[in-house]
């Protein structure tokens, strides 16, 4: 039996070997002047988009002519001011790359000089919206993944070059990230994953679908309000309820909204990931390219990768699919992840596993099952949720005389939410698991968003161990592995309090051992 002494465990620093820089002899360069055309067209679209609803709200007749007399010159003034500012910005912004640094000088009112050590550069992100693609431009974002210096500063150290010629952007990306190719002499590119149009079928299964449906409802009310008919949608629904009954209207309404949300999610997923490719480039660089209207390209050095995460949201998981995220230094993500960290979008699990193996090696492994008290803990919280939902659904009916449609919606929401809470308790327990391989710590958790992380053991820089009062009574403990990559910490939750300490000690020998007390048992 292993126990933890009441001492704190502090994190250590993550270090890595820096690749030898290449002397480029680069001169100072300026941004492309076609950025002015992009800015002018963009601002014209913004002014039209803002002016049309305003004109509709004012109405017709003399009031509309007076409004246009002020709106059109005002819009022209705004466009001219923004384009003038952009012209100055393009003129004063300069950048160049030396054998040791990448530097940028910019600033209209206040001069700013930024400099990044080339050995610290960890990612190069290229994006181009439709207007920029028409003029052959791109935005280049060079990042280190580190935070800015100074008190309370949390901004990432990056250089952003807005309005760079596309060929120049590709040259910068290649120059900044293909340093090791000079030493290896390997100039071959390896394809790791390719997007297939059939993967679009997973888009409607994401949580984005109901969110877009809700946005459509809000948009309907907004458009009606523009025409002075803000109550019209409510009147239409009320008439339908009188003619067909509340349950029919509620059921057909939900189906219609879900279909609308599914179509919108298909469009967004197709635009974001059309033409997706994951390649390994010479010099040990992973490159993700994607986008139908907005072209995106992210290059990441493999030496900065500390693992991968296979994410399976509930709807996508029900279809046997998931997505592949990377855990890398320089790509900070929140709890829900980020498009920047995604290597492969929602795809069949065999394709995701194949890409994961190409990035970090074998990923198949038997996971250790967590104690049954972890299931009991989840069931207790589920029962509490059911009781609260039942009370929330009953009280309004006792206090007020509710409309039939509203009453039906409350009852249906309470019943479905209660059933979902109970199912989630069992499913989240089945998802729990952890294991060790020769190179990685593996942890799986979650139900609505099940995630399996394969974290490089050499990248673990500390442990954070927590145990609530309820966990202590059940003999459970949560172990957080801290790292300098990704979210910064990845947890093994509700594991056996003694077994998990041995697990941590085996994962990173000598890091936790001075704080452990082993009994003769």
- Biggest sheet strand line-up: 8-7-6-12-11-10-9
Estimate the helix proportion, in percent.
40-55%
Mean pLDDT, rounded to whole units?
Answer: 84
Characterize the main sheet.
7 strands, antiparallel
Q: Give the number of domains.
A: 4
Overall shape: it is flat
Q: What is the CA-atom radius of gyration, in angstroms?
A: 28 Å
Tally of helical runs: 14
Structural class: alpha+beta
Approximate strand percentage: 25-35%
Question: Which stretches are poorly predicted, pLDDT < 50 over at least 5 residues?
Answer: 5-25, 147-155, 180-185
Instruction: Tell me the total number of β-strands.
Output: 22
Tell me the distance between the termini: 6 Å
Protein architecture, described:
With 521 residues, the chain is of the alpha+beta class. The chain has four domains: 29-192, no CATH class; 199-273, no CATH class; 275-368 and 432-518, no CATH class; 372-430. The chain has helices at residues 35-58, 62-92, 130-134, 166-177, 181-184, 208-226, 232-244, 246-273, 314-318, 349-360, 372-399, 404-431, 469-474, 499-507; strands at 2-4, 29-30, 94-97, 101-106, 112-117, 123-128, 137-147, 156-165, 190-194, 277-281, 285-290, 295-301, 305-313, 321-328, 342-348, 433-436, 440-445, 449-456, 460-466, 476-483, 489-496, 516-518. The model is unreliable at 5-25, 147-155 and 180-185 (pLDDT under 50).
List the helices and strands and how they pair.
Layout: E1 2-4, E2 29-30, H1 35-58, H2 62-92, E3 94-97, E4 101-106, E5 112-117, E6 123-128, H3 130-134, E7 137-147, E8 156-165, H4 166-177, H5 181-184, E9 190-194, H6 208-226, H7 232-244, H8 246-273, E10 277-281, E11 285-290, E12 295-301, E13 305-313, H9 314-318, E14 321-328, E15 342-348, H10 349-360, H11 372-399, H12 404-431, E16 433-436, E17 440-445, E18 449-456, E19 460-466, H13 469-474, E20 476-483, E21 489-496, H14 499-507, E22 516-518
Antiparallel strand pairs: 1-22, 2-3, 3-4, 4-5, 6-7, 6-12, 7-8, 9-10, 10-11, 11-12, 13-14, 13-18, 14-15, 16-17, 17-18, 19-20, 20-21
Helix pairs in contact: 1-2, 6-8, 7-8, 8-12, 11-12
């Amino acid at each position: 039996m292993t126990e933890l002494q009441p001492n704190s465990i502090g994190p250590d620093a993550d270090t890595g070997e820096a690749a030898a820089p290449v002397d480029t002899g680069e001169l100072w360069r300026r941004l492309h002047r076609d950025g002015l055309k992009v800015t002018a067209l963009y601002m014209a679209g913004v002014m039209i988009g803002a002016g049309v609803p305003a004109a509709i709200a004012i109405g017709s007749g003399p009031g509309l002519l007076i409004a246009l007399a002020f709106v059109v010159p005002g819009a022209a003034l705004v466009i001219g001011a923004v384009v003038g500012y952009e012209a100055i910005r393009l003129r004063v912004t300069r950048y160049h790359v030396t054998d040791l640094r990448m530097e940028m000088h910019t600033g209209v009112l206040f001069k700013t000089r930024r400099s990044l050590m080339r050995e610290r550069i960890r990612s190069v992100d290229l994006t181009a919206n439709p207007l920029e693609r028409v003029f052959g431009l791109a935005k280049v974002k060079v990042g280190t993944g580190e935070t800015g210096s100074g008190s309370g500063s949390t901004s990432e150290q990056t250089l952003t070059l807005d309005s760079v010629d596309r060929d120049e952007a590709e040259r910068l990306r290649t120059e900044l990230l293909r340093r090791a190719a000079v030493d290896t002499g390997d100039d071959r590119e390896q394809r790791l994953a390719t997007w297939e149009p059939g993967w679009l079928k997973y888009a409607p299964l994401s949580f984005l679908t109901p969110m877009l449906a809700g946005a459509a409802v809000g948009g309907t009310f907004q458009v009606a309000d523009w025409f002075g008919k803000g109550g019209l949608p409510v009147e239409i629904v009320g008439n339908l309820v009188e003619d067909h009954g509340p349950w029919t209207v509620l059921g057909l309404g939900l189906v219609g909204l879900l279909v609308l949300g599914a179509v919108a999610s298909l469009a967004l997923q197709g635009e974001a990931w059309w033409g997706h490719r994951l390649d390994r480039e010479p010099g040990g660089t992973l490159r993700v390219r994607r986008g139908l209207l907005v072209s995106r390209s992210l290059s990441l050095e493999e030496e900065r990768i500390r693992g991968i995460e296979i994410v399976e949201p509930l709807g996508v998981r029900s279809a046997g699919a998931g997505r592949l995220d990377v855990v890398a230094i320089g790509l900070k993500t929140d709890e829900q992840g980020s498009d920047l960290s995604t290597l492969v979008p929602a795809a069949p699990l065999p394709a995701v596993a194949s890409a994961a193996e190409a990035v970090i090696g074998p990923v198949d492994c038997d996971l250790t099952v967590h104690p049954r008290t972890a299931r009991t803990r989840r069931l207790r919280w589920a029962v509490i949720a059911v009781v609260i939902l039942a009370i929330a659904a009953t009280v309004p009916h006792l206090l007020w005389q509710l409309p039939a449609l509203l009453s039906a919606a409350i009852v249906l929401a309470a019943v479905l939410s209660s059933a979902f809470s109970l199912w989630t308790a069992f499913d989240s327990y089945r998802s729990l698991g952890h294991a060790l391989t020769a190179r990685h710590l593996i942890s799986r958790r979650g139900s609505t968003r099940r995630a399996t992380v394969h974290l490089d053991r050499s990248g673990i820089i500390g442990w954070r161990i927590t145990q609530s009062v309820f966990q202590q009574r059940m003999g459970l403990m949560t172990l957080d592995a801290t790292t300098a990559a990704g979210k910064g910490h990845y947890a093994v939750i509700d594991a056996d309090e003694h077994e998990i300490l041995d697990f941590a000690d085996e994962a990173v020998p000598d890091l936790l051992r001075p704080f452990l007390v082993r009994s003769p048992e």
